[in-house]
Amino acid sequence: MGRHFGQPRNAADEQHALQWIFSILGEPVPQGRFEDILRDGTVLCRFMNKIRPDLLPKFSPSDQPAKQRENIGFFTQAAQAMGVQGTDIFQTIDLYEQKDPVSVANCLSRLGGIVSSSFLISCPGIFRTE
User: Fold this and answer.
1) 99 DSSP 8-state letter
2) How far is CA 2 from each of CA 5, 59, 90, 128, rounded to the nearest angstrom?
3) Which of 2, 16, 66, 104 has its CA 20 to 30 A from that of 10?
4) What is the mean pLDDT of residues 59-84?
């Protein structure tokens, strides 16, 4: 289980994270639940490609569960390479099987703090750097 299992979800944090991701992508935020929008890893990989394309191997959208999990793994590896601490990296199961969306939001929050301080890209105020 994720490290944040049982913690209450914060819809505002999730919405801010989606707004940040899609603002970087230059696209409107799609309708749907946080974890459904991110579930196959494609959005996360496209997002990371905009920030640090050198950190991702070639990824591809797919309907195959193994490929979707692989895309999520590519994103989490890149986030860790950017400085997100291992304790703040979510597990693939946290997103893919929707076991712990709080861990996903927390990871994006930590990444936002790193990106905003390191690359001077505007990030919503929910992102933490501590």
Assistant:
1) S
2) 5, 25, 7, 19
3) 66
4) 94
